[in-house]
Amino acid sequence: MVSTDTLLNALVASGDQALTLDAAMVARLTEAAGDLAVNLAIALVILVATVFASRWAATATRRGLSRIRGFRHDPTVLSFAVQVVRVVVLLIGLIAVLQRLGVQTTSIIAVLGAASLAVGLALQGTLSNVAAGVMLLILRPYRVGDLVNIGGHVGKVQRLDLFFTQLSDANNTKIVAPNGKVFGDFILNLSGQKTRRMELKIGVCHRSNLHAAKTSLLEAATAQEQVLTDPAPWAGVTNLLPGSVELTLAAWTKSEDYWQTRADVMQAAKEGLEEAGVEIVNSAPIPLAVPADAAQPGSVSRAKSLRRRSNPRSASFETRRDDPNEA
Questions:
Q1: E strands, the chain, where?
Q2: Fewest CB atoms within 10 Å of the CB: 70, 108, 132, 165?
């Protein structure tokens, strides 16, 4: 039979062992919490440092590229390169933060590799915009400050980034176009060349003196200082319409002076033709008048009935016989 002292000693020993295990567990939990707090603090510091480092790298990149002659006056490349550098620095800092928190980089790469197909399908539009932005930067169909026509929208390029192209039209309306659609559509760079030709089509009466009209148009163009002398302005008859004779005036000017010069030349051409006694008429073809009942249902049958009633024989009218022997 076990004595009482032996039972007491066994209970005391088991209690001491439990206290030792609890103390060890508390110590481990305290150590883990301390390590987690330290890692979180260091990760937070790394994250903050990454944000400041990305800004500093972007500024340094802008300054460095500004010193290069080829990129000094090209804000498109500057803004694009600054954004790429900023994103790369942020990605490096994010990987460092994850490693500090105990996340293995190899496992992250494995997970991304396994989910690459799903991510690619979900972000195919975004990735295509990024790829199109890179191609636009390499091919340079337009630059910041150019006047372009993209998808029927005319505006000045304000910004080109990784995903979008930002335009501003004549009404100062902000237009944001995805790079994927921009790269896949027609791009008309209206200010891509140094000079631009204007073409004015004016209709005059058939009875007008065409020689005087051409002379007036050429004088109206050459009188403007913004019109270039080389190539010289040209005017001539380009079409004969039922209600008018179409004259075309072509003149060259600098791209930045196009719209104002076009307006001035058009005003001067109108005033010159009026002084020369040349009548300006609409150069568009005259539309044919269509009866109101022609487009209504049954108009054909009504027209046939009217023709039958206008014909005495078809209406069963008795006609006077000129020949009494006629049967």
A1: 147-150, 153-160, 164-168, 174-178, 187-189, 195-204, 234-240, 245-254, 280-281
A2: 70
